[in-house]
Q: What sequence folds into this?
């Protein structure tokens, strides 16, 4: 039975067209996946259905639900529908809750605003719903404030809020993108369970094909404001009729062709690294407590090797990276690069710094917006004892190495896309011909197709120059694609270490097992059809 | 919460000590000998010595400082050179004018600014918003003492509705006092209200753009309900900061406005002190004003914690 | 929004520029010598001879206003310069050493200065040194220092979390150099906007101080003192109270509009969209 039927949904914001006539149906009690890259219009589709468009947005077409056209309803009627018939949860649980109201009040509000219950009754229902999403009374009484909860817990509160009145449709817009993989798996399980138990349809919006593959009954693929393909999930991904679906699918678990450049010569040696932070006192004269972010970590990275470091947020991997880059001091242990000790701040010698460069996550925050690309890429030349004779030529060749043209040197960073920016960041890291590049979540902010291209580039540069990579990421698929060996970090400790393929295929440590099990993957046999078909062609 | 209050109390005490040191240094160290300074150049050494004794200005600097601070803590603000009476008595008398004036103005500016700011933010870009913003733009640009003069010109000199100046004293009753303070309080409040309304508006607009407002709307709250139930309380946090700062502007403005309306408040006392080189009065009244600002800011910080649960746990 | 920002900016710049031009012009030309008394011509209403009338000594109001503009603008400009010269380096330093003792001292110091409104600083200085325009400059300037320090620190702190700062550190640059090369140019917009705001506040504060006699002393004309002098004659010569007040309002309004326009134009959040 069709619950929601959307026909010719068009949307423009300040007259700029965003959606160009979408058609899709969501059946009662099913999971409907909407996938696409950033900017494809998936979130706007959801906001149009909720009639919560940003200022200047207008939508036309039909979205029929229970005999009414959502797009033509009065604001008053929409208010009555939102929360009662259609619930919605969003991407960023950290900011999705009102910081000055308790979680109990916020869940109860859904009931009270619709006149469904008195305050006392609403709070009882809130308790029951919070229990249902796994936030039990003992640890999560109703008078908790959002800031006392983790991201995953907050997302559970949001879900409890959205399903408090048992709506027929729940729209989830990238509900797990901001969460760690193990938390993601739990939230997805919770959503699946709710769909089954409460006969609720779920519209799951995500950029992650693997998530959709594991969840959705039907799926629609969006590109630039259009649905290019829709159908039952497995059939659609097996056939991949549309070219865009095919490319998206291929990029989703793309592994670049890599040559082995790894040697047995140690380059980076970390021994017993310790880093603790002082926590604020909880009582006026209480004991000073410490948080040990990195607890006695030791490992060796060889010349030409690509070493992965995986772990969830807060596991200490970024702290460790800062220490390796000499940006932060260690309280114990040593870090040696090419046999010499790394020390924080300007105690570190320039020639040593020149052996090690970094690429960071954020393609937007990685560059001073007021500098030209030439100046940005040339910044590490500061580490040379005397300025090079031909800085412009060095910049030009670095840009060419990453697939850009020398003329780009005169431009400013806002003229480039996210993927191009990461190429510029790599050029900046390359210009000194370092031995080691630390890549801190360097491809995490990129869309899958761009990510695949950047991974290809990294593989190519490694084989050409024999570079060593320390590849830090929360994404197991990416680490598998680009590294020889991997370290798994949990709560400041390295719990498992070994050849990447071996660790991920046959994890030994319990935590690694959880991590691997929680990481969504496209079923491998779906891919084979493609190979089979291509051989036929 | 307790540790939060304790740590704020600590910094409150420290601020007061440093402020008192600064004031003491400016008034008692820079001019050399305060007694000589007060009596002028042609005073005889004997009369200077008499004055010094009379005002308790004997002894080394640390002794004098401790004497001054100790006195203040026990309610003794020293002796006025001009009036030869305890400064504390003078201050108490003048506070009967200045304190009601400040509170009256504070009340007026809040009563005007908050609704105006909320209205403007809720009707962003529409007529009501443009009107409010236009008036606040003007309100910020108008010097309060000139505004006071215009008010006096219109309502006192031309229309004779309210007195142009002077203070009847509390013995005359509440109504005459209110009448005499109305124009000064309006003059003081309106420019402050303009600033406050703008802060309220922009803070509320920022809050309305936050994710949790979208969450609330997705639950079925109308935009008006979202403003009332979720946005206003969050938006008040930055408004409180400005309110704390505003208090010092109200005090400062009060000093000037008292001059326009010939009100015998702290401002007048301090100017008499300056013209008569009565350093003791200046020193004590300035310390009082600064202490008031510091204490108000302390109260504001505590109020933050009441509004925002995230602050309660921090030290 | 951009179009409106630009319009606001132009209207503001024209208003403020007009009074700035008058102030500069007053050095070479005024309708009458500003201090020339002519008792026979006292209390003239505005007319063709004296555009804005004359005061109780028959002095030309327009000429006094022009010279008064000079005083107001000079005091406010120098006070902004003091605030920037003192506050910006402190703010940069505090941000570069976030959470350190230095940062704490700079911040608490700022809080302490905020406890002394400009008029209280002026009162303290005047009680010891006697009144002068210099006191007004000092009082307003000192109050401006923590204002600029706070704005700079807040802007710098958000920049310090960005990856290009980490990249600069990986390139071996020291915090002081990063502050100058990367942070300062990117907080410049904030400082320009704050500068305009403090400029207009400075004009208001100067007027207030000279109104109560803590600012420029006779015979130097200033808008605040002209208002103070006019007060006793308000009943029969209200124009004496109107014109200096209007001059203050229009100058301050112009500067505020300029500040708003600049903010709209320079705000990176708005710029990214274009």
A:
């Amino acid at each position: 039975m069709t619950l929601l039927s959307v026909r010719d949904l068009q949307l423009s914001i300040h007259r700029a067209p965003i959606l160009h006539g979408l058609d899709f149906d969501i059946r009662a009690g099913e999971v409907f996946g909407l996938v696409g890259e950033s900017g494809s219009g998936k979130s706007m589709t959801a906001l149009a259905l909720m009639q919560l468009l940003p200022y200047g947005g207008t939508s036309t077409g039909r979205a029929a639900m229970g005999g009414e056209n959502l797009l033509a309803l009065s604001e008053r009627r929409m208010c009555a529908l939102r929360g009662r018939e259609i619930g919605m949860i969003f991407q960023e649980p950290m900011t999705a809750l009102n910081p000055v109201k308790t979680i109990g009040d916020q869940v109860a509000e859904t009931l009270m605003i619709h006149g469904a219950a008195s305050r006392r009754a609403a709070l009882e229902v809130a308790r029951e719903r919070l229990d249902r999403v796994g936030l039990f009374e003992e640890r999560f009484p109703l008078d908790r404030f959002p800031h006392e909860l983790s991201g995953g817990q907050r997302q559970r509160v949001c879900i409890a809020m959205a399903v408090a009145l048992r709506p027929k449709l729940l729209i989830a817009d990238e509900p797990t993108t901001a969460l760690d993989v193990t938390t993601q798996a739990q939230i997805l399980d919770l959503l699946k369970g709710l769909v089954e138990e409460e006969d609720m349809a779920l519209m799951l919006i995500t950029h992650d094909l693997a998530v959709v593959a594991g969840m959705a009954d039907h799926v629609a693929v969006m590109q630039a404001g259009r649905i290019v393909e829709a159908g039952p999930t497995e059939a659609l991904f097996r056939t991949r009729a549309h070219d865009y679906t095919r490319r998206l699918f291929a990029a989703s678990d793309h592994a670049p062709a890599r040559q082995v450049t790894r040697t047995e010569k140690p380059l980076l040696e970390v021994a017993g690294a310790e880093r603790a932070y002082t926590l604020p006192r909880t009582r006026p004269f209480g004991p000073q407590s410490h948080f040990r972010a990195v607890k006695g970590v030791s490992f060796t990275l060889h010349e030409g090797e690509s070493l992965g470091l995986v772990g969830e947020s807060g596991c200490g991997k970024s702290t460790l990276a800062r220490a390796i880059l000499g940006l932060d001091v260690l309280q114990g242990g040593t870090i040696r690069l090419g046999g010499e000790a790394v020390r924080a701040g300007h105690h570190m010698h320039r020639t040593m710094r020149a052996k090690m460069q970094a690429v960071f996550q954020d393609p937007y925050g990685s560059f001073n917006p007021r500098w030209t690309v030439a100046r940005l890429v040339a910044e590490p030349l500061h580490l040379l004892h005397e300025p090079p004779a031909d800085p412009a030529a060095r910049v030009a060749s670095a840009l060419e190495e990453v697939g850009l043209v020398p003329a780009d040197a005169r431009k400013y960073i806002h003229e480039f896309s996210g993927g191009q920016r990461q190429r510029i960041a790599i050029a900046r890291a390359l210009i000194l011909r370092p031995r080691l590049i630390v890549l801190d979540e360097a491809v995490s902010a990129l869309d899958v197709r761009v990510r695949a291209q950047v991974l290809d580039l990294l593989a190519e540069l490694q084989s050409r120059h024999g570079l060593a990579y320390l590849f830090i990421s929360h994404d197991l698929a990416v680490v598998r694609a680009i590294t020889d060996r991997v370290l798994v970090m949990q709560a400041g400790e390295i719990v498992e270490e070994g050849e990447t393929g071996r660790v991920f295929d046959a994890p030994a440590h319990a935590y690694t097992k959880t991590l691997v099990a929680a990481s969504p993957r496209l079923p491998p046999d779906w891919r084979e059809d493609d190979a089979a078909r291509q051989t036929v062609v | 919460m307790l540790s939060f209050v304790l740590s704020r109390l600590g910094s409150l005490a420290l601020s007061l000590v440093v402020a008192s040191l600064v004031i003491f240094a400016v008034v008692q160290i820079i001019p050399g000998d305060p007694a000589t300074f007060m009596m002028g150049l042609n005073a005889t050494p004997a009369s200077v010595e008499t004055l010094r004794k009379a005002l308790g200005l004997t002894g080394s600097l640390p002794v004098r400082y401790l004497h001054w601070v100790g006195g203040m803590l026990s309610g003794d603000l020293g002796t006025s050179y001009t009036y030869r009476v305890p400064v504390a008595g003078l201050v108490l008398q003048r506070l009967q004018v200045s304190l009601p004036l400040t509170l009256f103005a504070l009340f007026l500016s809040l009563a005007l600014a908050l609704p105006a700011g909320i209205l403007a933010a809720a009707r962003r870009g529409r007529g009501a918003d443009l009107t409010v913003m236009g008036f606040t733009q003007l309100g910020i640009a108008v010097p309060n003492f000139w505004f006071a003069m215009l008010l006096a010109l219109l309502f006192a000199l031309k229309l004779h509705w309210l007195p142009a100046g002077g203070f009847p004293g509390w013995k005359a009753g509440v109504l005459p006092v209110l009448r005499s303070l109305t124009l000064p309080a309006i003059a003081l409040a309106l420019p402050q209200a303009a600033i406050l309304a703008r802060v309220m508006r922009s803070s509320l607009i920022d809050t309305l753009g936050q994710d949790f407002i979208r969450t609330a709307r997705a639950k079925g709250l109308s935009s008006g309900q979202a403003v009332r139930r979720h946005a206003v309380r969050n938006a008040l946090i930055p408004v409180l900061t400005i309110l704390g700062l505003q208090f010092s502007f109200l005090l400062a403005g009060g000093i000037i406005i008292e001059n326009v309306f010939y009100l015998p408040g702290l401002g007048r006392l301090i100017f008499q002190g300056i013209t008569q080189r009565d350093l003791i009065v200046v020193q004590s009244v300035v310390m009082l004003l600064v202490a008031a600002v510091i204490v108000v800011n302390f109260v504001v910080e505590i109020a933050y914690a009441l509004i925002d649960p995230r602050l309660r746990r921090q030290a | 929004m951009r179009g409106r920002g630009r319009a606001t900016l132009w209207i503001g710049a024209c208003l403020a520029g007009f009074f700035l031009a008058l102030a500069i012009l007053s050095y070479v030309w005024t309708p009458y010598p500003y201090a020339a008394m002519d008792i026979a011509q006292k209390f003239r209403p505005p007319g063709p001879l004296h555009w804005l009338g004359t005061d109780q000594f028959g002095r030309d109001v327009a000429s006094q206003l022009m010279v008064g503009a000079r005083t107001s603008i000079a005091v406010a400009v120098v006070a902004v310069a003091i605030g920037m010269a003192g506050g910006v380096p402190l703010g940069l330093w505090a941000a570069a050493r976030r959470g350190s003792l230095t940062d704490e001292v700079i911040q608490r110091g700022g809080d302490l200065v905020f406890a002394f409104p400009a008029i209280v600083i002026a009162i303290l200085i005047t009680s010891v040194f006697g009144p002068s325009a210099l006191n007004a400059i000092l009082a307003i300037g000192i109050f401006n220092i923590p204002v600029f320090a706070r704005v700079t620190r807040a802007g710098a702190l958000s920049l310090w979390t960005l990856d290009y700062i980490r990249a600069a550190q990986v390139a071996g640059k020291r915090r002081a150099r990063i502050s100058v090369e990367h942070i300062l140019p990117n907080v410049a917009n904030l400082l320009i906007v704050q500068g305009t705001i403090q400029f207009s506040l400075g004009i208001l504060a100067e007027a207030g101080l000279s109104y109560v006699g803590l600012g420029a002393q006779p015979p130097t004309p200033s808008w605040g003192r002209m208002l103070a002098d006019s007060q006793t004659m308000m009943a029969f010569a209200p124009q004496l109270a109107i014109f200096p007040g209007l001059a203050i309002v229009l100058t301050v309004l112009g500067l505020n509009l300029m500040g708003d326009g600049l903010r709209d134009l320079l705000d990176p959040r708005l710029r990214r969209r274009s």
Q: What stands out?
A: Chain A touches chain B through 36 residues (CB under 8 Å). Chain A has three domains: 2-252, 257-277+289-355+434-521, 374-433. DSSP finds 19 helices and 20 strands in chain A. The mean pLDDT of chain A is 91.
